[in-house]
From TrEMBL:
Belongs to the AAA ATPase family. The lineage of its organism: Bacteria, Bacillati, Bacillota, Clostridia, Eubacteriales. It comes from Lawsonibacter faecis. This is ATP-binding protein. SMART domains: AAA (SM00382). Keywords: ATP-binding, Nucleotide-binding. Residues 119-251 form the AAA+ ATPase domain. InterPro entries: 26S_Proteasome_ATPase, AAA+_ATPase, ATPase_AAA_core, P-loop_NTPase.
Length: 330
């Protein structure tokens, strides 16, 4: 049955007080979501229906509970409240399942701990730039309902001897005050191999400090690190993470789905973009986003609600040039 019909039946049964019909239709909606691979949503709806759900904690409810940032530490990190969800994420099925599993484990944290099982709480994202690592971290924060500590590496890394390690300790000290998703982007900046002959002694001190802080970091939080240069990471770093996820370049199917998702507010033939897929070799997810954004801007500026083949052709060509330029920089 179409989703619209299910919703109508749900409202009618509620209005008429037909509890059996309401429960039956609600079950149909849950199964409909499960068939769409919305497993977490289906589980949450089932818990709500059965009266045993723990409401998802809104990120906004943390604003009055988060620790107070010292003035001298403001520059080290930023507290942000992401609003990205699985519906915003185009990921391969296996990646989607892994992310949903992490959310499910966090939501059942107390159950796992009480049974002597540790939930996943240290996650390493690696892979090509522009392939969704930051978006995935934001999605986990939003789906779980945690604020994110976004670590500013330009401020954490210092030219003064010992100060980088001290800054890392300050980040973890703050994170211990409450539950957060602590996000270390560009992680290779502080976790480079200690055996690298071109690195000075300071990097060894920094890596040792990070490992010590991570090992001693307890509490109901997630620590997520992301890097585009996984080959540069210290060997000991890999062993400290419960889960490592590789973010690969998008397939043509993923490009198509992302393009359609980002242009859902406009009318136009989706198959038009498919005609240009051969022109998108080397495009990351971010490149597809840029392509779709260019089309949207053109339509907005010209007061149109329908995009054309010409719009897509121009957008793809512009981004191809950007991709070609980027390749010359490596």
């Amino acid at each position: 049955m179409a989703r619209a019909d299910l919703l109508k039946k749900l409202f009618v049964s509620h209005k008429t007080g037909d509890h059996e019909a309401f429960y039956r239709v609600a079950q149909e909606i849950i199964e409909d979501e499960r068939k769409k691979n919305h497993g977490i949503l289906a589980d949450e709806l089932k818990l709500i229906l059965n009266g045993s759900a723990q409401p998802r904690r809104s990120v906004s409810t943390y604003s009055s509970n988060i620790g107070k940032v010292k003035d001298e530490d403001v520059r080290l990190f930023e507290i942000i409240y992401p609003e990205k969800y699985f519906s915003d994420l185009i990921a391969m099925p296996q990646m989607q399942q892994e992310l949903e599993r992490i959310v499910n484990e966090f939501q059942n944290w107390d159950v796992l701990v009480s049974n002597g099982v540790a939930p996943t709480k240290r996650i390493l994202f690696y892979g090509a730039p522009g392939c969704g690592k930051t978006l995935a971290a934001q999605t986990l924060a939003s789906e779980i309902g945690l604020p994110m500590i976004y670590v500013r590496f330009d401020a954490v890394i210092s030219s003064y001897l010992g100060e980088t390690a001290s800054n890392l300790r300050k980040v973890f000290d703050f994170a211990r005050q409450d539950s957060y998703v602590v996000f270390f982007d560009e992680f290779d900046a502080i976790a480079r191999s200690r055996n690298d002959p071109f690195e000075h002694g300071e990097i060894k001190r920094v890596v040792n400090t990070f490992l010590q802080q991570l090992d001693s970091f307890k509490g109901k939080s997630l620590v997520i690190a992301a890097t585009n240069f996984e080959q540069s990471l210290d060997y000991a770093i890999w062993r400290r993470f419960d889960c490592t996820l590789r973010f690969d370049m998008p397939t043509n199917d993923a490009k198509m789905r992302l393009f359609c998702l980002r242009l859902k507010s406009l009318d136009g033939a989706n198959h038009i973009f498919a005609e240009f897929l051969n022109e998108t070799d080397g495009f990351t997810y971010a490149d597809v986003e840029q392509t779709a954004n260019f089309v949207r801007k053109q339509c907005v500026l010209e007061g149109r609600k329908i995009y054309t083949k010409r719009d897509i052709e121009q957008a793809v060509q512009r981004q191809k040039e950007n991709v070609a330029l980027r390749k010359t920089q490596y």
